[in-house]
Design brief:
- It is a single chain.
- The N and C termini lie far apart (34 Å).
- The protein contains three helices and five strands.
- The protein has one domain.
- It is 27% helix and 38% strand.
Length: 118
């Protein structure tokens, strides 16, 4: 897929969550898009950890080969490093597979506790 095609797929994913209303209601930011090693398009973004259940702060949505979504809900923790300090580490909190587009917003609400629209 070209960069433009990947961007269009990512924009569609965000639109299916509620578009600009979703962004405003959840505080979503730092959007990234690309393709997985298997060449499946994805969008990833952050939400404020203190907003969501289980301190979820990173969401990654992948459009798989079955034309459904796989969604990973992650939180960022700290791990002691070799230098006596701490390094950030992402920890998987929940994962949903085979989600249809009309189920995406409900899955997000169930996992994070956040509304996607008014």
């Amino acid at each position: 897929m070209t960069r433009e095609e990947l961007k269009a797929v990512a924009e569609t994913m965000i639109a299916q969550l509620g578009g600009n209303k979703f962004v405003a209601m959840t505080g979503a930011k730092d959007f990234l898009f690309g393709a997985t090693e298997g060449n499946d398009p994805y969008v990833q973004f952050k939400i404020p950890a203190n907003f969501a259940k289980d301190n979820i702060s990173i969401i990654k949505i992948v459009l798989n080969q079955m034309d459904t979504y796989d969604v990973e809900y992650l939180k960022v923790g700290k791990k002691k490093n070799d230098f006596g300090g701490f390094s950030p580490v992402a920890e998987l909190v929940a994962k949903s597979e085979g989600i249809y587009c009309d189920m995406l917003a409900d899955d997000f609400k169930e996992k994070t506790g956040l509304e996607t629209n008014l």
